[in-house]
Design brief:
Layout lengths: L10 H14 L7 H8 L3 H13 L3 E4 L2 E4 L2 H9 L8 H11 L3 E7 L2 E8 L8 H5 L3 E3 L4 H8 L3 H12 L3 H17 L2 E4 L6 E10 L2 E11 L3 H22 L1
Helix pairs in contact: 2-3, 5-10
């Protein structure tokens, strides 16, 4: 981070992140040549990175193909509360209570990523967002805005400085909305990522720490859908509070 708090991309770190994601998406494993094409880097450079990742347990090699190793999982265990733990049965129950589909979402760098979903979405084209864990820009989703609002202040400054390079208008609008998001612990999106989708996000917590977001979605039709999501969120929050008592 620079003295002004701006986070800058690093080519080697980017390549490592792309390699890990590419490998994670291929259960049968990926060759160095395939990774080089995905990353857009010389095979020799990718070979060096892959070798280092394998040596430290981030990758496993078998018959010339690389799969994700145990190290990422171990780091999550060490951290203890990196990823919110909500079972599929619990997500389905939350969806039933809310009366809407429910998405469990976390922040990954500058993106929001859906980990899982409960219930059936009335818009099937949105299902891959959760089922394939596709990244969405933080400031263009209700979950991303909520998670950014509850990120550590110093961390948030650095992230916003980086985001401002690509989407200054969204950053300016988020800064205006930030006090209200933090006060209400609710974030909304009226067509930010998709003009047909209304979404509302509430926090998932581990003690005082916000570890993720639950997102309620509905087809965007007007003010009535916003009120419907408000009522759904109220039911969900009451249900969660009752379970904690």
């Amino acid at each position: 981070m620079s003295e002004h708090g701006r986070r800058r991309r690093h080519r080697t770190v980017d390549r490592i992140a792309w390699i890990l994601e590419a490998v994670a998406r291929e259960p049968a494993g990926v060759t160095v040549a395939e990774l080089a094409r995905t990353v857009g880097a010389p095979a020799s450079s990718v070979q060096d990175l892959v070798g280092g990742l394998a040596a430290t347990g981030f990758l496993l090699e078998q018959h010339g193909r690389f799969r994700l190793g145990p190290a990422p999982h171990v780091l999550n265990l060490i951290a203890g509360r990196v990823v919110p733990r909500i079972s599929q049965a619990e997500l389905d129950e939350l969806s039933r209570v809310a009366g809407t589909p429910v998405l469990l979402t976390v922040r990954v760098g500058l993106d929001a990523v859906h980990l899982a979903r409960g219930g059936e979405d009335e818009m099937p084209r949105l299902l891959p967002l959760a089922d394939e864990h596709m990244a969405r820009p933080l400031l263009r989703t209700a979950a991303g805005r909520l998670l950014l609002a509850f990120t550590d202040e110093a961390e948030r400054r650095g992230l916003l400085a980086e985001l401002a390079r690509h989407d200054p208008e969204a950053v300016a609008e988020f800064r205006r909305a930030l006090p209200a998001i933090r006060a209400s612990r609710v974030s909304r999106s009226e067509g930010l990522a998709d003009p047909e989708v209304s979404a509302l996000a509430i926090p998932v917590t581990d003690g005082p720490v916000v570890t993720g977001a639950l997102v309620l979605t509905h087809r965007r039709r007007g003010r009535s859908e916003r009120l419907r999501l408000d009522r759904a969120a109220a039911r969900l929050l009451a249900h969660i509070q009752e379970r904690r008592m």
